[in-house]
Amino acid sequence: MIMRIFQVTTRPGKEAAFAEFFHETAIPLMKGTKGIVQVLPGAARPETPRDFSFVMIWEDLEALKAFVGEDYNSPHIDPAEAELVESRTIRHYDFVAD
């Protein structure tokens, strides 16, 4: 399995708009995506109000590529989020089960 960690920093002043997108659109979308075993969304905290993240566990690399394409190392974004986001990072790991 593949663990994908996607982190977002919003543009200043766009925290509330991104939070709405995150809760109303992004979380339901990811939870309903074929090939995802588990989704762990992380909302902003008071000390980091512009930072959000997802930890996603994918069945395998092929399932991830089926969703994001061959260039899976680039952050896959929804067009609605593009104007709200200042920066994105993406990392992949082999998931280690207990």
Automatic annotation (TrEMBL):
GO terms for molecular function: monooxygenase activity. Residues 1-71 form the ABM domain. Keywords: Monooxygenase, Oxidoreductase. This is Antibiotic biosynthesis monooxygenase. It comes from Ruegeria marina.
